[in-house]
């Protein structure tokens, strides 16, 4: 099961300290683990939401760090792409997977798969025993859709103002965090559905 | 790409004034009262979501508005379902509007409303009743309207059992098992008809049923699998997809639950035949790409699970897995599939009495050597090692000898995998390979540089020249230095601890010291060294420890010249030299020759201050008869003379050109060590006293060339005076400077004189009420 999916900055943001990341979209799946963990039992719903937001921030920071170290090591220059060149942007994207230890931030160990397209990072946090090949493919698919539907290569702010499109996309390709084994026909059927939603 | 406009939007959303927010909320409330909700409502809801989600502190909605938004969850327009669910997930319900998990009819909810329900579950009881309702829905035949909710039942159940498997009762588990078997085995093999008229589902058409096809075009066989294609899909075919997607997790969660013989049997046979058929078709020349590759990995994992439950299935399954291995092992692009196969061999190879050597040759040989730069493979392989390290240590002898290969993952991408190596390194430390491992760890940055050169070498044509990395790349390609690099790139331990021409190698790689990969790697070495030393004390005998001390002394001046690297390594060495000598004081006498050689080199005072100080200290502390009976007067005198010579040299003139003054700590350590040695061989006392009084005289005359700071000089002189006074009474000096073990390891409660007062004091404290 995928615990969460997020889109966040991997470039320096003036209002934040170095190494910090601005979370632009986040979606946590399933019940909140804080609801019955022994440690967090006494927390009310507001505190639990706060805790969840902090956990997401931790993930974003870890991925940001992994991205900058990876880019530093590979020494590749980031290729600037514009709207319409989504496929190229995806091809040039850096990718990797980071191990998040138990407790940091989720109660069990998790794996954070990430893709970094220029100044944005897309992260999928899943259970370590999950089929990582499938998760990788799903992340690539989601990223491509997000880049296209939200025109992320352009200067706009649709990731903030059209987040419901991402929700709709996730409800089909990653329902309640479930990774799906979709052959191209099943995938095509779902994607047509997504396109129909976006057109309304 | 990330625009200033986004930053300011977030800022606005966070800092919105209370009055402005209330105005916006009341406008929204009025909008939602209208009959027809259009784009304005969508945009407003989206803005509300932004305002709520931009801050981690929860904002509450006015109760009326909350009710209206909640009502949108069942709107016929999906946009409003999505938006209301998203908005409500970012806030908490006002008093009296909390969700009642027993009342709401879960089956009528669409996926977005159900997601809200899941996210707000606050207790196991909530989840249990949610599960009960979902399963009730699965049991009965779905009517037309609720078709939508059925498909999301499985993902929802999967989400629940990820975090809280006890929410399903035994009956639930049995029921769900049966349903999964139904969908996996008996889903229709006919296509869902022509172009669907919106939504996933197509009802049965009044046409000739057209069977689904496999990925390569052939007509589907016995039963439907996730790899069957068609123009459209029926509902049960979708359920097949969802079932397969959660199958492995299901097996992992409930393997220990007895779900009734009959169902278990059917389930097992189904899973087995399904997976076998997948693997079978792959073994026979079909191409693997994308989805088929994912399914192949999954199938192998499922078979592994199933065989774990029922060992009798191993005999039927192994030939298939073996054939698959044979087919894929020569092509490294299938490495990710070969790992689950390796897990299968590890788990069941013994039972089937199969020779697994070829598998380990791949996993410990070719994968790290040739695929060290595949970050996903690295992650999965290292995870495989972590999970199975005990088993591997027992059953795969070559495991502990494969560290030169495994460390390539670390050398290439340290930040991503250092965490894994922190866990794995202890299992790679054995008495037989410890020395070689230590050398390898110290030269990890060299390995890092070499791997970069190797990759560059294959990318750049031979004739390419100019640009960075020219010298090292040339060296890498030249015949005369081939041996050096080949040693670093070796796959297995056992061919030698290190090479003679290490300094040559370091020179050749000097320009790589600022390459990012090399720098990242160098930063992880100290941590690994700590783990190495902490582990090795448990497995090493004195002979090995003595060897390790020698390596530390030798290598402290033989490292790749990366800024700060040298200092960090010295610090680690100093810590562990102390620890080792404290644990085995006789090491000092044993290695006195090497230690004296090190301590006698005056140049080290200036270049290796940290470790030099510690060597001097251990000599002073442990070179005594009470630590090792082999310690002779001659040895003490010889050590004394060596240290005395160095102390004379560094305090008689200024530092050599280019060097700083010696650190005060070095001077005082030397003085203390001399005093300690003299207290054990009283003939030497006059010599020390003479030196110390001369020191006092010289420093009274004004500043000295070898100490630039007046306070430091005062401290040195003070220490000198203390030692001088102490040595005036040799007996006292001996008991202070060479205390018997009884004093250094006090057990006061055993001493007849000390114990009584201590006991009385303890009793008094306990009984007196304060």
From TrEMBL, chain A:
InterPro entries per record? AP-5_subunit_s1
Q: Name one Pfam family in it.
A: AP-5_subunit_s1
A GO CC annotation given for this chain: lysosome
The processes (GO biological process) annotated in the record are: double-strand break repair via homologous recombination; endosomal transport
Which species is this record about? Liparis tanakae (Tanaka's snailfish)
- Could you tell me the superkingdom of the organism this chain comes from? Eukaryota
Protein's name according to its UniProt entry:
AP-5 complex subunit sigma-1
Lineage of producing organism: Eukaryota, Metazoa, Chordata, Craniata, Vertebrata
From TrEMBL, chain B:
> In the UniProt record, what gene is named as encoding this protein?
AP5Z1
**Can you say what this protein is called?**
AP-5 complex subunit zeta-1
**Domain annotation AP-5 complex subunit zeta-1 ARM repeats: ranges:** 294-408
Question: Where does the source fall among the domains of life?
Answer: Eukaryota
Protein's organism: Liparis tanakae (Tanaka's snailfish)
Report domain AP-5 complex subunit zeta-1 C-terminal TPR positions.
Answer: 420-766
Annotated Gene Ontology cellular components are: AP-5 adaptor complex
**Residue ranges occupied by any AP-5 complex subunit zeta-1 N-terminal TPR domain in the UniProt entry:** 1-272
* InterPro entries named among the record's database cross-references: AP5Z1, AP5Z1_ARM, TPR_AP5Z1_C, TPR_AP5Z1_N
One Pfam match, given by its short name, reads: SPG48
């Amino acid at each position: 099961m995928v615990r969460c999916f997020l889109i966040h900055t991997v470039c320096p943001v003036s209002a934040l300290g170095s190494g910090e990341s601005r979370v632009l979209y986040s979606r946590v799946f399933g019940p909140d683990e804080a609801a019955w963990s022994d440690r967090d039992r006494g927390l009310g719903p507001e505190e639990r939401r706060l805790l969840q937001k902090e956990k997401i921030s931790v993930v974003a920071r870890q991925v940001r760090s992994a991205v900058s170290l990876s880019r530093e090591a590979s020494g590749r220059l980031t290729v600037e792409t514009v709207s319409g060149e989504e496929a190229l942007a995806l091809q040039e994207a850096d990718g990797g997977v980071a191990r998040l230890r138990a407790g940091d931030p989720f109660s069990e160990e998790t794996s954070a798969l990430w893709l970094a397209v220029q100044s944005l990072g897309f992260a999928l946090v899943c259970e370590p025993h999950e089929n990582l090949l499938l998760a990788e493919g799903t992340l690539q698919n989601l990223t491509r859709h997000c880049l296209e539907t939200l025109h992320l290569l352009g200067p706009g702010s649709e990731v903030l103002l059209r987040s419901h499109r991402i929700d709709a996309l996730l409800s089909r390709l990653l329902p309640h965090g479930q990774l799906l084994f979709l052959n191209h026909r099943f995938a095509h059927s779902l994607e047509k559905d997504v396109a129909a939603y976006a057109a309304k | 790409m990330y625009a200033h406009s986004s930053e300011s939007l977030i800022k606005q959303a966070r800092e919105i004034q209370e009055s402005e927010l209330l105005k916006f909320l009341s406008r929204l409330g009025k909008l939602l009262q209208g009959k027809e909700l259009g784009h304005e409502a969508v945009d407003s809801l989206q803005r509300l979501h932004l305002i709520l989600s931009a801050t981690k502190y929860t904002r509450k909605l006015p109760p009326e508005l909350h009710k209206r938004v909640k009502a949108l969850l069942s709107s016929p327009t999906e946009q409003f379902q999505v938006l209301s669910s998203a908005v409500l997930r970012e806030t908490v319900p006002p008093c009296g509007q909390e969700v009642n998990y027993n009342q709401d009819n879960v089956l009528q909810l669409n996926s977005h409303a159900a997601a809200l329900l899941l996210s707000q579950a606050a207790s196991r009881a909530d989840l249990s009743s949610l599960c009960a309702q979902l399963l009730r829905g699965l049991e009965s035949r779905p009517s037309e309207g609720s078709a939508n909710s059925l498909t999301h039942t499985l993902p929802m159940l999967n989400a629940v059992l990820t975090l809280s498997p006890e929410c399903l009762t035994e009956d639930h588990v049995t029921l769900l098992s049966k349903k999964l078997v139904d969908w996996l085995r008996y889903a229709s093999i006919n296509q869902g008809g022509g172009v669907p008229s919106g939504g996933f589902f197509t009802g049965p058409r009044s046409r000739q049923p057209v069977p689904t096809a496999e990925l390569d075009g052939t007509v589907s066989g016995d039963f439907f699998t996730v790899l069957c294609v068609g123009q459209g899909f029926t509902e049960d075919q979708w359920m097949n997809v969802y079932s397969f997607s959660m199958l492995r997790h299901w097996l992992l969660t409930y393997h220990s639950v007895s779900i009734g013989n009959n169902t278990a049997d059917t389930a097992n046979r189904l899973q087995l035949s399904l997976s076998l058929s997948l693997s079978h078709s792959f073994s026979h020349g079909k191409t693997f790409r994308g989805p088929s590759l994912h399914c192949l990995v999954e199938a192998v994992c499922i078979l592994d699970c199933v065989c774990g439950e029922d060992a009798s299935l191993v005999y039927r399954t192994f030939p298939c897995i073996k054939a698959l291995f044979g087919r894929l092992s020569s092509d490294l692009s299938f490495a990710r599939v070969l790992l689950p196969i390796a897990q299968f061999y590890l788990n069941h190879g013994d039972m089937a009495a199969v020779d697994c050597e070829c598998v380990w040759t791949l996993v410990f040989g070719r994968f790290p050597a040739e695929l060290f730069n595949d970050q996903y493979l690295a992650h999965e392989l290292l995870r495989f090692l972590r999970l199975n390290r005990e088993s591997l240590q027992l059953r795969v002898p070559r495991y502990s000898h494969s560290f030169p290969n495994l460390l390539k993952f670390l050398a290439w991408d340290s930040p991503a995998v250092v965490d894994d190596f922190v866990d794995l390194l202890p299992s790679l430390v054995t008495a037989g390979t410890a020395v070689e491992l230590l050398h390898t760890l110290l030269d990890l940055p060299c390995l890092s540089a070499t791997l970069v050169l190797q990759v560059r070498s294959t990318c750049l044509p031979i004739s390419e020249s100019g640009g960075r990395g020219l010298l090292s790349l040339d060296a890498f390609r030249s015949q005369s230095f081939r041996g050096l690099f080949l040693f670093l790139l070796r796959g297995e331990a056992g061919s030698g601890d290190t090479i003679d021409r290490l300094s040559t190698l370091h020179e050749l790689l000097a320009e790589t010291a600022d390459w990012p990969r090399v720098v990242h790697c160098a930063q992880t070495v100290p941590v690994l060294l700590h783990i190495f030393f902490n582990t090795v004390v448990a497995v090493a005998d004195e002979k090995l420890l003595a060897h390790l001390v020698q390596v530390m002394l030798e290598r402290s001046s033989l490292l790749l010249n990366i800024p700060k690297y040298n200092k960090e390594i010295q610090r680690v060495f100093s810590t562990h030299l102390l620890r080792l000598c404290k644990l085995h004081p006789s090491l000092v006498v044993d290695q006195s020759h090497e230690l004296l050689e090190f301590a006698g080199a005056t140049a080290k005072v200036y270049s290796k201050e940290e470790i030099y100080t510690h060597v001097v200290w251990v000599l002073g502390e442990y070179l005594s008869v009470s630590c090792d009976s082999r310690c002779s007067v001659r040895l003490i005198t010889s050590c004394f003379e060596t240290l005395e010579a160095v102390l004379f040299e560094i305090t008689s003139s200024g530092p050599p050109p280019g060097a700083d003054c010696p650190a005060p700590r070095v001077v005082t350590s030397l003085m203390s060590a001399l005093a300690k040695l003299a207290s054990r061989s009283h003939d030497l006392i006059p010599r020390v006293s003479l030196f110390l009084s001369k020191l006092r005289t010289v420093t009274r005359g004004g500043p000295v060339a070898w100490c630039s700071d007046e306070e430091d000089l005062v401290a040195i002189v003070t220490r000198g005076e203390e030692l001088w006074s102490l040595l005036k009474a040799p007996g006292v000096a001996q008991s202070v400077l060479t205390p018997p073990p009884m004093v250094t390891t006090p057990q006061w409660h055993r001493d007849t004189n000390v114990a009584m007062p201590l006991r009385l004091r303890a009793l008094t404290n306990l009984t007196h009420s304060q």
